[in-house]
Amino acid sequence: MPKSWNEKFESKSTHDIKVIEKDFWSQKAGDHMLIPTPKLIEDYVNQSEKGMSIDPVQMRIDLAAKLGADFTCPMTTGIFTRIMAEKNLELHGDNYEAMTPFWRLVDPKSDLAKKLSCGKAVIQELRANEGV
Asked: What percent of the chain is predicted at pLDDT more than 90?
């Protein structure tokens, strides 16, 4: 049986900082890359203000700075953003008031929005309701 989104959320409880061995993502060999957790992303989103959009690039910059890395891995950040959003949908159904407001982070035009179980129309509606 596949893991629930909540189990996936809970399974990555500690962030990592890795030294990259070769240049990639506009970073240089020797830079320190943060591998975040879904919880770090959730905490960041929960600190956002209603009606404000969260720029994923700025979030990655902020998380890296907070945890002493040069940058945050964009790929794992995207994966963990989905896990965080799906966990909230799984646990709260359509009770959006009880959720971490992931729609502030997920652009409705993004590939991620298309993959989420709620669909991009729900993200568009939630953003519109907040004035994002």
From this structure: 94
